[in-house]
Amino acid sequence: MSKKLIILLLCLVVIISTFSFNFATATAAGKKVTLVVGDWPRENEPARVATFKKYQKIMLDKYNVEVIPDYYQYAVSSFLPKAAAGTLPTLYNSWFTEVRKIVENGYAADITGPMKKAGWHKSLNPQILPLISDQGKIYAVPKYAYVQGLECNIQLFKTAGLVDAGGVPKAPKTYEELAETAKIIKDKTGAAGFILETNNNCGGWHFMNIAWSFGTVFEKKEGGKWIAAFNSPEGVAALQYVRDLKWKYKVLPDSTLLDWASGQQVLATNQGAMLFFNATDHDGFNFQIDNYKISKD
After folding, report:
1. Which of 71, 62, 69 is closest to 32 using CA atoms?
2. Quick one: 148-292 is in which CATH superfamily?
3. The pTM of the whole model exceeds 0.85
4. What DSSP state is assigned to residue 38?
5. Contact criterion met (CB below 8 Å) for 157 and 182
6. 203: number of CA atoms within 13 Å, CB side?
7. Residue range 139-178, pLDDT digits in tens
8. 13-144 with 148-292: one CATH topology?
9. Roughly what angle, to the nearest 10 degrees, separates helices 175-189 and 233-247?
10. Residue ranges of domains in the chain
11. Residue 294, class by beta-carbon neighbours within 10 Å (0-12 exposed, 13-18 middle, 19+ buried)?
């Protein structure tokens, strides 16, 4: 079984259209098009409001498209009732994990034609495209996505002798290597080799990625119903791996109740060497720089 370090694209925001159209055709025919745009920013976000209003004016002046603000934000509990009542905005945000459900219930349009005509489909990450498609048809436009990897404490890696000639950390590439590297750092520095955030929503977030990498399937469809499927050998193996980090390799911090902020603190203060980290988590870098005065370099 391949246990590659996390390169899985996680779900964030997707913009889904309830119908497709061609601005140029509509304008040429003199028809006014109305769009209701969800997730419109509130007045306490003046910068976003200004940006939205700018494009609102451009759409009206250039394309004869009236954009009507709607403050609806996607929620699993409210989506289907709102959709059934016919009150969804034309454009709304959701997550990658929701696309299939939305498509199967008929609340997203096939926008394959416009996407290919504009050539946008060629610009999409090939790992993203399947997440917004169904049976070869595109139903969404990705707004934001990220990969998850590792943040490494260079000082601890240097002390443990785990940097190359250029001073770059020799980061592990598999889960086995992660445990082994963490053990070397723990033995040579006394610091935790790996920081596993568990508190608040962090535990489920990180464990799901580990479990996916071990081949775990979390749910499957049987008899028209979705049922839990993670009680499997793969799921157990993922749990065993997490247990081994604590009790076999002994590379985790003494405290197992770490959230995002406390995990950043452990790494920034040289108490831990590695941390699962989002490729676009600039907030994390800034948090460490601002609060613990670490070097930007």
Report:
1. 62
2. Periplasmic binding protein-like II (3.40.190.10)
3. no
4. S
5. no
6. 8
7. 988 887 777 888 899 999 999 999 999 999 999 999 999 9
8. yes
9. 10
10. 13-144, 148-292
11. middle
CA distance 223 to 260: 39
Residue 162: both structure tokens together: 């785990």
Q: Which residues of 150-173 are buried (b: 16+ CB within 10 A; e: fewer)?
A: bbbbeebbebbebeeeeeebebbe
Q: According to CATH, what is the number of the domain 13-144?
A: 3.40.190.10
Q: Contacts for 58-67 with beta carbons within 8 Å, 24 or more apart?
A: 59/35, 63/23, 63/26, 63/27, 63/33, 64/26, 64/27, 64/30, 64/31, 64/32, 64/33, 65/23, 65/26, 65/32, 65/33, 65/34, 65/35, 66/32, 66/33, 66/34, 66/35, 67/35, 67/37
Task: Give the pLDDT confidence of 248-273 residue by residue, as tens digits.
Answer: 999 999 998 999 889 989 999 999 99
Supply the pLDDT for residue 52.
94
Alpha carbon distance 9, 241 (integer Å)? 21
